Amino acid sequence: MYTSLLNVKQAINIEQKLIDYLGTYIDHELERLDDVKANPLVAFTLIKRLHSEWLNVVYSDEALENTQLRSGYEEEEADLPKVEDLQGAAKGLMRLQDVYALHVGGLVRGRFQRVADGKPTDIYLPTVSVPLSGDDCFLVGKVAYEQEDYYHSVQWLEESVRLFRGTGSKWIPENEGTLQDALDHLAFSHFKTGNVSNALSLSQELLHYPLNGRVLQNVAKYEKLLVSSPPKSLSSNGPRRPTSNYLRTRDTYERLCQTQGSQPVHFENPRLVCDYFTNGHPGLLLLPARREVLSLQPYVVLYHNFITDGEAEEIKGLAQPALRRSVVASGEKQATAEYRISKAWLKGSAQSTVGKLDQKISMLTGLNVKHPHGEYLQVVNYGIAGHYEPHFDHASSPVFRLKTGNRVATFMIYLSSVEAGGSTAFIHANFSVTKAAIFWWNLRRNGQGDEDTLHAGCPVLIGDKWANKWIHEYGQEFQHRCSLNPEE
Ligand SMILES: O=C(O)CCC(=O)C(=O)O
Ligand SMILES: [Fe+2]
Question: Where are the bilayer-spanning segments (predicted)?
């Protein structure tokens, strides 16, 4: 190599190549990191580590003399996830389990699987599977247990007991629970769901632990119960899912989240057009919108190329600091009601990207979107299994109407495409959408709310959902005219 300069040049080329390989490797690793961040199982275990595992380690006897660790931890403490975050993450996992009919055993192995005809199928294959520990499952089970939701607690605690048994009686400092705790909670959950014989056998196992009067009493109670009312043969199908207040629409909602519903069949109805749309506006002449009319009643339109990746990134960047603030500032009640979602409002000047988007919405819809006729751009970010229950965007009662009237239409933009889950489901119209930008009228021409617009945001399974939307209100008298037909 040292005999000629040419050889040295070659060596430099080789090194350059190696550096390029390294660069590619790092890029791939960064992508992998992105994948990992967007995985709810990773997010859950991370929150759990930060909320309780580190705490248990830092304050364990083993770490007593490590004052540096303790003071370092105390410095960060204020920024660590709170118990509500951990509970919210656990509830998020159970929501994903329900809405996407996921198999708990699969989730525990880091997989997202649905069981159909006894066979598990992956509905999403993560690049990295993050398995859960017995203690992770114990925590989810306990959150369910504390809400008296024994349907979920049985399933998660079964997994917890199985995993704790697998690790033997080894004591792990970061754990919150033990095999004994899991058995105890599982026994009671079984009892509450009417499975007395399982409750009894688990309680009998608990008798091997340092004696506990309550367990002894339970064993006697369960034995008596089994004699007085022996279990009926396998007639019941096990515990039912807890009912919720939107049960009426729940089945449809979940089906739409899983399947996208019955997508529009354009060739069957000539009014469901796909076209290059300018709305007769000179501003759209050179770059028309790729419009797809999805539904006529309610009237829902999809614009395929509404926002560029660069614009979306800019909007997310603008919203990020405001989003954080809005979470801290939200009152306790609201934080729990809309848990897993944070919001920010962006004003933006006419020249800004926000202003340009405003202008584009106005050109496409022909509506006056200037504040206060349109609300500021709202950016929403969804957390673990973040979702939005079925609702209307318009106010159903005049009491809640703003000065500029009701929300006549919605323009919703997806700032990043979600990898799995997270679609917007139109409950009555029977379809769901996950991409680009959609527009729909909330009010009928007679000013009344259009009940057919009932819609929901499905929980995000994988990915980072940034939906944002423009809501237009009255002030559109000449653009969205009333009809002479009061029924319209
Ligand atoms: O996230 C979604 O898909 C729906 C959000 C929504 O409906 C709303 O913010 O009003
Ligand atoms: Fe909505």
Answer: none
